[in-house]
Amino acid sequence: MDFLEQKQLDALIEVARPHARVKTLGHVAAKGEQVPVYGFVFGPDDPSLPVFGLFAGVHGLENIGTHVAIHFLRSFVHQLSWDQE
Question: Quick one: how many helices (H) and strands (E) in the chain?
């Protein structure tokens, strides 16, 4: 797969695994391939707790949102490696 964002997410998943549960929520078709849609779950699996959603790539040709979302997620995951709170 030649999607830079997919490669970045795959690398981020490996770094995030000690802190997050990564779920494949589904797949979307892109350039004739099935691309996974991931969900990163941090913290307890309690549906009564508040939730924060981060979505990007909604409009296929607008990729700046995807870059911002990946950068934010990368920063958050790296912060979890040293911030116990």
Answer: 2, 2
**pTM to 2 decimal places:** 0.77
3-state class of 73 per DSSP?
Answer: helix
pLDDT in tens, 67-80: 999 999 999 999 98
Instruction: Give dist(CA 1, CA 33) in Å, integer.
Output: 8
Straight-line distance from the first to the last Cα atom of the chain, in angstroms, rounded to the nearest whole number: 37
Tens of pLDDT, residue by residue over 49-70, are: 998 888 887 776 778 888 999 9
Sign for the pseudo-dihedral over CA of 9, 7, 15, 77: negative
Q: Is 50 exposed, middle or buried (0-12, 13-18, 19+ CB in 10 A)?
A: exposed
